[in-house]
Amino acid sequence: MNTARTYLAGCGTQTAALAVGGKTTVASAATEKYDGTSWTATGSLNVARGYRAGLSGNQTAALSFGGSSTNFPPTQIANSESFNGTSWTATPTLNTARSYLAGCGTQTSALAFGGDVPPGSTQSGVTELWNGSTWTSNPTGLNTARKGLGGLGVQTSALAFGGNSTPPGTTSTGATEIWNGSTWTNNPTGLATPRSGMGFAGSQTAGLGFGGYGPGNKNQTEEWTGTDVAVRTITTS
Question: Is the pLDDT of residue 223 over 90?
């Protein structure tokens, strides 16, 4: 990549990906596109955001929301921006400022859930829906408030799993919840290895969660089948 960073957000496909924001020594506004071979810097965010802002959409039509404008302690922000493949344009803000949140969906139909809200480091279950012009808070949020969680799916059919659930954020959870467009329902089977800060990919019915922290760095990979999880054994060197 052109800009080394942690806690960035990403979306798209293997041959058309988008990397947004993150943390260098400060919150970053860097945006880069991947074409299957190399990374190219493109228009920067209007508001730098670190500590894993939410991101939905794809390489040519994305939405970035939340994150933090400072490193430690983080200053959570509510700013939201849309990307047209070249540049970012400010959009109406989230109702609840937060970092370490999860996001999924498209540029015009997105879902934001969980996160770390002020003051300090407080886990949130707040869920908001984006219709392309405004954010609306859902009457009910996640059953387990958390930050640093995994999130997959679309606005009407999403999955939330893992994260930190106990202030100040040192206790990981394996809790898994399914979203039907209006409410979250706990799934009986959660992650076998509770953790936060995972990598994740897929959809509400076919997902992967890999790596993370729980405490200590983890190498486990778990597969979501739509109703249950299966642990995949991997070999490390």
Answer: yes
Ranges of beta strands (E only) in 43-191 are 54-58, 61-65, 80-83, 88-91, 102-105, 110-113, 116-117, 122-123, 127-130, 135-137, 150-154, 157-161, 164-166, 171-172, 176-179, 184-186
Cβ atoms < 10 Å from Cβ of 233 = 6
Sign of CA dihedral 170, 176, 182, 183: negative
Nearest CA-CA partner of 62 in 12, 96, 97: 12
Q: Tokens at residue 181, please?
A: 């467009």
Output phi, psi for 67, to 5 deg: 105, -165
| C-alpha separations of 113 from 22, 62, 68, 135, 222 in Å | 19, 17, 15, 12, 21
pLDDT tens across 16-62, in order? 999 999 999 999 999 999 999 999 999 999 999 999 999 999 999 99
Please check whether residue 162 is in contact with residue 194, taking contact to mean a CB–CB distance below 8 angstroms. yes
Average pLDDT, the chain: 92
Whole-prediction pTM: 0.93
| Alpha carbon distance 223, 164 (integer Å) | 20
How many whole angstroms separate alpha carbon 44 and alpha carbon 87? Answer: 7
